[in-house]
Amino acid sequence: MSKIKSYYTNVKSELSKVIFPIKEQIRSAYLSVFIVVTVITLFLALIDGVMALSLSSIIN
């Protein structure tokens, strides 16, 4: 029983050290991820389009 009590005491002390992000930090991180994913998606769509056009011109 003392191990369980010690465990919960340690968990509580470690959780008090955690710094949770504020709303502005979460929003900023979300916006950064959204922009990076959008840019990568557009780049891959461009590469796909160029390859499709080049392959269709080679085949025809």
Automatic annotation (TrEMBL):
Bilayer topology annotation: Single-pass membrane protein
Cellular component annotations (GO), alphabetically ordered: plasma membrane
Pfam families for the chain: SecE (PF00584)
Swiss-Prot/TrEMBL keywords: Cell membrane, Membrane, Protein transport, Translocation, Transmembrane, Transmembrane helix, Transport
Entry's transmembrane regions: 29-47
Classification via InterPro entries: SecE_bac (IPR005807), SecE_sf (IPR038379), Translocase_SecE/Sec61-g (IPR001901)
One GO BP: protein transport by the Sec complex
Main location: membrane
Gene Ontology molecular function: protein transmembrane transporter activity
Cross-referenced Gene3D superfamilies: Preprotein translocase secy subunit
Protein origin, superkingdom: Bacteria
Protein location: Cell membrane; Membrane
The family this protein is said to belong to: Belongs to the SecE/SEC61-gamma family.
NCBIfam families reported in the protein's UniProt record: secE_bact
Main function: Essential subunit of the Sec protein translocation channel SecYEG. Clamps together the 2 halves of SecY. May contact the channel plug during translocation.
Quaternary structure and partners: Component of the Sec protein translocase complex. Heterotrimer consisting of SecY, SecE and SecG subunits. The heterotrimers can form oligomers, although 1 heterotrimer is thought to be able to translocate proteins. Interacts with the ribosome. Interacts with SecDF, and other proteins may be involved. Interacts with SecA.
Name the UniProt record assigns to this protein: Protein translocase subunit SecE
Gene behind this protein: secE
